[in-house]
Amino acid sequence: MKKFWSVLGTAMLIALVALTAASLFSCAKKPAKITVATDATWPPMEFVDENKNIVGFDIDLVNEIAKAEGFQVEIKNTAWDGIFAGLAAGNYQVIASSVTITDERKATMDFSDPYVNAGQVLVVRKDSSGISSLADLKGKKVGAQIGTTGAIEIGKVQGVELKTYDEVGLAFEDLVNGNIQGVVADSPIAANFALQNAAYKDKLMIVGKPFTDEWLGFAFKKGDTKTLKLFNDGLAKVKASGKLDELQKKWLQ
Asked: Residue 152 sits in which domain range?
């Protein structure tokens, strides 16, 4: 009998130690707080509002991921010209700043699963009809910022006249004034002017979906698989819950 209780006691002790270790491992697996860098100068993705708060699509998405995975987030407004160097130096764990996933960047940093396509879209006036693509504007003028992907895409469509601008806001102003019939720009930029801008949102609309693939992702220090997995797991939950679709409707549609 003593032997039985001795064996049982040993087994219980081993189980307790294993349970404690597993609990500690589980707690250690998820940090209490993660610092996220963003260059808050690109509405509607990330910007500083009238109350000096950093807001936008990326910020909302990061907060939803944090909620899904049970950690806190500290947002750090960081200038773009040093944002990648700061990641490599370990000044923060994540960049959430409309970073396009490219093969060149993959060589020096890791990326989450893509979460939105910031490809080129076409913006027209709301009083336009029968327009769903660039091809529908043959014989018309379409504007874009000089040297951008938008300008390149317009140039590919035979019969569409490209008008370039030093700053994309001037193209949208010309569109509202009827001097051109469309503008091609990155989808977040288009959303900012056509959907968020009080002066334009009742006059402009985005037609169709992005016609180039320029996927955005969260960036991580090379080899930081722990934080990467945490964000990917949270992103998957946000997608499955439908919350990502809600954020896209709020900020980008």
From this structure: 120-207
